[in-house]
């Protein structure tokens, strides 16, 4: 199982996927907001969304797991 992590501290602006959805390696899963900038978080590998660990408006830390993917 692959863990998709936040590269910055900020807040979740939008969750773009749902559990069970098939995604590709460059698909955007979540958009974070940090310092008034929108930062897309990509899957990094193809898979199926197994778990979404954040919701819109949640504060996130750098390195925090946002989404888990299964092959």
Automatic annotation (TrEMBL):
Coiled-coil residue spans: none
Q: Which InterPro entries match?
A: Biotin_Carboxyl_Carrier/Decarb, Biotin_lipoyl, Single_hybrid_motif
Q: In what residue span(s) does the Lipoyl-binding domain sit?
A: 1-70
Q: Name one Pfam family in it.
A: Biotin_lipoyl
Any keyword Zinc? no
Transmembrane: is it a keyword of this entry?
A: no
Highest taxon, organism lineage: Bacteria
Mind listing the UniProt keywords for this protein, alphabetically? Biotin
Give the matching PANTHER family. OXALOACETATE DECARBOXYLASE ALPHA CHAIN (PTHR45266:SF3)
Protein name, please? Answer: Acetyl-CoA carboxylase biotin carboxyl carrier protein subunit
């Amino acid at each position: 199982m692959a863990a998709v992590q936040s590269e910055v501290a900020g807040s979740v602006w939008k969750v773009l996927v749902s559990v069970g959805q098939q995604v590709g390696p460059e698909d955007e899963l979540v958009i974070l907001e940090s310092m008034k900038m929108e930062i897309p978080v990509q899957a990094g590998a193809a898979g199926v969304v197994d778990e979404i660990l954040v919701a819109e408006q949640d504060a996130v830390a750098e390195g925090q797991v946002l989404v888990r993917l299964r092959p």
